[in-house]
Amino acid sequence: MPRLHVPDIWTLDRSTAEQLADATTRLAAAVKRAVNPDGLNVIQSNGSAASQTVFHLHIYLVPRWEGDPIGHIWPPESNYSEKEKDDAWEALRVECRKTSNSRARRAHPLKKIGGSTSTSSRQSSLACPLRHQARRGGCCQLRRPPMGSR
């Protein structure tokens, strides 16, 4: 496990993130085998608004059982309007497109075909950061979940 100081997920480099994800899934499997919980919360908080109290990136694996005293960790409802939710999802789609487009430009430079520059092969191979195949205009899978979804 890396011992590098990383304050939050926003400063985490890709290689360390991959190691952290691998360690998290291995430990989750060990928790399942060791104590056989009914469920498992994987919690990672960033910033004081998200209840981060130790400003060093870390992940909690919390084994859960039906009826345990922890209860639900998500509030039943939010007071965000549908417009606020839609605006947030649109802003996220825009950012994912930016990330996808810059990665695609690095991985798939424009090709010259018959004296002209072709973007069709590059556009069809774009993928969003969530590794979904992209369509023209952005990620095909990034949609706001229906009301009540978490």
Structural commentary:
The protein has 150 residues and is of the alpha+beta class. It folds into two domains: 9-64, HIT-like (HIT family, subunit A, 2-Layer Sandwich); 82-139, no CATH class. The protein is 35% helix and 13% strand. It contains three helices and six strands. The protein has helices at residues 14-35, 82-107, 120-124, and strands spanning 39-43, 60-64, 111-113, 116-118, 134-135, 138-139. The strands form three sheets. It has a two-stranded antiparallel sheet with strand order 1-2. β5 (134-135) and β6 (138-139) form a beta hairpin. The longest helix is centred in the middle third of the chain and has 26 residues, at 82-107. The chain starts with 13 loop residues before the first helix and ends in an 11-residue tail after the last strand. Residues 110-141 have low confidence and may be disordered.
Terminal-residue CA separation? 30 Å
Largest sheet: 2 strands, antiparallel
Task: Give a count of the beta strands, DSSP E runs of length 2 or more.
Answer: 6
Strand content: 5-15%
Give the overall pLDDT as a whole number: 76
Extract low-pLDDT stretches.
110-141
